[in-house]
Specification:
The chain is mainly alpha-helical. The protein has 2 domains: about 60 residues, no CATH class; about 100 residues. Helix 1 packs across helix 2 and helix 3 packs antiparallel against helix 4.
Length: about 180
């Protein structure tokens, strides 16, 4: 069975110009010609098919190999980036845990001072109920108010200092993209 260049090109799903160039380049003769149209026999058709299939397979193999190497490089880069980000996050966690530990210790100290003050207050109230004079009672109440006010000021100052420290550390902490682009 014989076919024209167009039929061969359609079968291979390639432009007929490419088939025509291959035939001219390799000086392939048609099996016969009818009304100016060249026809080629099965042997020639099979040779053309195998030539283009080899080129196609070779190109596909090269492209696949190239794509695999690109994918490998990208994967390595992504893994490295994720490792670095994980290390950075672990450091942030350590810092936050240390700050939390310090804050808890500080709160324990404040609680202890508050407990001491409450104990003194209870003792003072007991002494007052034991029959102290009105002036002594008044002096004790004023003293307790001063102590309470002083403790409130200390607690407020401690909280303000902790907030300032927290704000300063938050300013120092920057995400990956902020560090990369300084924003």
């Amino acid at each position: 069975m014989t076919k024209t260049i167009k039929q061969i090109a359609d079968e291979l799903k390639m432009p007929k110009q490419k088939i025509y160039r291959y035939i001219k380049k390799n000086r392939i003769k048609e099996s016969h010609q009818k009304n100016g149209v060249m026809y080629y026999n099965e042997t020639v058709i099979n040779a053309i098919k195998s030539a283009f299939e080899e080129k196609s397979t070779s190109i596909e193999a090269h492209q696949e190999s190239h794509q695999n190497s690109i994918n490998e490089v990208v994967n390595v880069a992504v893994i490295e980036l994720l490792k670095n980000e994980l290390e950075y996050k672990n450091e942030q966690i350590k810092v936050l845990q240390l700050e939390l530990k310090e804050e808890r210790e500080h709160n324990r100290e404040i609680d202890k001072k508050l407990l001491d003050t409450l104990t003194k207050l209870a003792e003072s109230q007991t002494a007052l109920t034991a029959g102290q004079t009105a002036e002594k009672q008044k002096a004790l109440v004023e003293k307790m108010a001063e102590v309470k006010e002083k403790q409130q000021e200390e607690t407020t100052q401690i909280i303000i200092d902790a907030d300032i420290e927290k704000t300063d550390t938050e300013k120092e902490k920057k995400g990956f993209f902020k560090r990369m682009f300084n924003k």
